[in-house]
Write a structure and sequence with these properties.
The chain is mainly beta. β3 and β4 form a beta hairpin.
Length: 673
């Protein structure tokens, strides 16, 4: 449009609509391509870009943020400065761009005010963020002349508006093409609530507005126009950081509202809001509402709306006094209750979604009628749980279970056979976790369970593919075959009597094992033959990796870090072993590496750091020819480093931090680089 390439026609279409048609035609002709990383974005092939730059030379310029490296296009009718985070002011003669139609300063948070003269830009159609100035800066009344504004408009720094009459001049009610409006006060604690209320009263948008976002509003009540039933297109209302408000307007009169979000109530947490329905007026019907989200309203006690036939997301967080009554919600997909007093259900059939998040201090407060609705739940997250016995035989479809931050939970004696993914964390009182019934379990993560001494009785689950264990201070076994979790032998994966048995490792599908910060661990077990990835971190008592001092032949990646008492990784490697990556850090007592390294035809990286007792490399320092990277640091006792005359020129060899000592023999580095 800036170069006159978009021609106006006699039709009623605007130039923007005609330009959109041009763009779609260019897209069909592969001038533009849809981005692979973001379907909402489009990219141009390098060759097409070069041609476009040649064609636009002299009429289109680049404005670059030299710090952030962001580039923007500037022309007569469009100015895009999106992401120029170090930009603090716009040009003083900005008002001279009288033909400017589009101004995008999204993610430019350092601008303090709009430039003087912006009221002269009467052709402006989109402004991503109108920043109200302070004192002698730009005024909100400067919006008066911008009658062609359309789409989305954000007005920020409304705390700088002290003249209510100037807010009236903005004439938002006359801007019929605006369908999304954001109004933000940045500092709410220092504001005069009366002024904020008067200003918001004057900023009533046109009845065609579809979405409204109010943030940081400092008054105790919202304006009367917000409950106006003559907003027939209003589909979304978001209220954020309005900590002084004591009630919401009767928004039930907005018949087509689909999304209602009340969140982040700042320092005051909307503490005075007690009744959902103000003045005891019954407006509970939300026939089109699809999302209801309320958070951090600790005194809210009123009755929530119950006529929600299309509700898809129901989220209540940290409303400690609220008794949540769950109506019949046939369209519900996501259900979250976090930190509420009690949960009750309607007398009708309860429909619970496949994805559900619960955070209730006392699950016994749930009525028995709640339980049948759990039959179809597939993904369940529970917080602050004391007992699971009420749930176990009802979760017949459960696939993913996530139990977090439940310091009073002591026992989990039964888990569902349908479970595939299990995550347990921050359950410091948990002593018993039995997974033997989980015949479909594939992924398990156990962390920060300080009282847990074992995970499963009998054998390792044959279906388990990935197991992560972290920060379990008292854990003695993963598998307790004889029920001797109290045994004095601190083996992580096997009790004392079965330390050298490997009966439970055969037939196992375990491929990925990570163990970290388990200070009682001294020895692992004879690993499953399918294990490909093994990582051990911060196991301070670990002396050896395997009870038979062998590694699985399928292992591809071995990482051992900060195991100061580890003496051996393995005695010998099988000829058909297939490790690709070997990394050992801070294992001060490790004296040697396993024999057979030179026969590992897949090994391409060795990284040894901080192994102060390592004396020599096996096989006379011979390494496989496939090796691409060798890094050795802080191994003071190393006597013989390398003796490889057949190494490829393509090796990348590095020696970091290894001090020179007369008894160490080095190869000629330049010969192989």
């Amino acid at each position: 449009m800036a170069e006159g390439l978009v021609q106006e026609t006699k039709t009623t279409k605007s130039m923007e609509e005609i330009g959109s048609e041009y763009f779609r035609d260019l897209l069909m002709r592969s001038f533009f391509q849809r981005s692979n990383s973001n379907e909402s974005l489009f990219v141009m092939h390098d060759l097409i870009n070069d041609i476009a730059q040649l064609a636009a030379r002299g009429s289109c310029y680049r404005l670059e943020d030299t710090v952030g490296g962001k580039q923007s296009e500037i022309s007569t009718k469009t100015l895009i400065l999106k992401g120029c985070s170090h930009l603090t002011t716009l040009p003083k003669k900005f008002g001279n761009l009288v033909n400017l139609r589009h101004l995008d300063i999204s993610y430019v948070n350092s601008i303090k005010e709009m430039p003087i003269g912006i009221e002269e830009l009467k052709s402006l159609q989109t402004v991503s963020n109108y920043v109200v100035g302070k004192d002698t800066g730009s005024k909100i009344g400067d919006l008066m002349n911008l009658e062609f504004l359309q789409g989305r408009l954000c007005i920020s720094n409304l705390e700088n508006v002290l003249d209510v009459e100037n807010a009236r001049k903005a004439n938002l009610n006359g801007k019929k093409s605006l369908d999304s409006l954001v109004m933000k006060w940045e500092v709410d604690d220092l504001q005069d609530g009366t002024i904020a209320e008067d200003v918001l009263n004057m900023l009533k948008p046109h009845r065609t507005v579809k979405t409204l976002f109010i943030e940081g509003y400092a008054s105790v009540k919202f304006p009367m126009w917000l409950r106006d039933p003559f907003f027939p297109n209003m589909v979304e209302l978001r209220v954020e950081r309005c900590g002084k408000c004591v009630s919401l307007p009767a928004i039930g009169q907005l018949p087509f509202l689909k999304h209602l979000v009340i969140t982040r109530m700042a320092k005051r947490d909307m503490q005075e809001w007690q009744d959902w329905i103000p003045c005891k007026v019954d407006y509970e019907k939300f026939p089109c509402l699809r999302e209801l989200s309320i958070s951090r309203c600790p005194k809210l006690q009123g009755k929530l709306p119950c006529n929600l036939p299309l509700l898809e997301k129901f989220s209540i967080h940290n409303c400690e006094q609220l008794v949540v009554s769950i109506p019949s919600l046939p369209m519900l997909h996501k259900f979250e209750i976090v930190g509420c007093k009690e949960v009750n259900i309607s007398k009708f059939e309860l429909y619970l979604p496949k994805l559900m998040v619960l955070y209730i201090p006392d699950l016994k407060s749930l009525m028995e009628d709640f339980m049948p609705g759990l039959a179809k739940v597939e993904n369940l997250t529970i917080r602050d749980c004391k007992e699971l016995s009420l749930w176990q035989d009802r979760l017949n479809s459960l696939i993913t279970l996530d139990i977090r931050s439940s310091p009073s939970l002591v026992n989990i004696n039964y888990l569902m056979s349908t479970l595939r993914i299990l995550r347990i964390g921050d359950c410091n009182a948990l002593k018993t976790l039995l997974m033997s019934n989980c015949t479909c379990l594939e992924y398990a993560t156990i962390e920060k369970c300080d009282s847990l001494t074992f995970i499963s009785r009998g054998k390792l689950l044959p279906t388990l593919k990935r197991l992560e264990i972290k920060y379990c201070e008292k854990l003695l076994f993963v598998v307790d075959e004889e029920g001797e979790a109290s045994s004095s032998y601190p083996s992580l994966l096997m009790n004392k009597e079965n330390l050298c048995s490997n009966s439970y490792s055969y037939g196992s599908l375990l491929e990925h094992l990570e163990i970290s910060d388990c200070p009682s661990l001294k020895c692992l077990w004879d690993f499953p033959t399918m294990l490909k990835h093994l990582e051990i971190h911060d196991c301070l008592e670990l002396t050896s990796l395997s009870s038979r001092n062998q590694l699985p032949t399928a292992l591809k990646r071995l990482v051992v870090r900060i195991c100061p008492k580890l003496e051996s990784v393995a005695d010998k490697l099988h000829n058909n072993a297939s490790p690709e990556h070997l990394e050992i850090w801070n294992c001060e007592k490790l004296k040697s590496l396993p024999e057979g390294l030179h026969k590992l035809y897949h090994l391409n990286k060795i990284d040894i750091w901080g192994c102060s007792s390592l004396v020599s490399f096996p096989d006379g320092g011979t390494f496989p020819t496939i090796l691409r990277e060798l890094s050795i640091s802080n191994c003071e006792k190393l006597e013989a480093l390398l003796n490889n005359k057949g190494m490829s020129k393509h090796h990348i060899l590095s020696r970091r931090g290894l001090p020179y000592q007369p008894n160490i023999t080095f190869i000629e580095w330049d010969e192989y680089l």
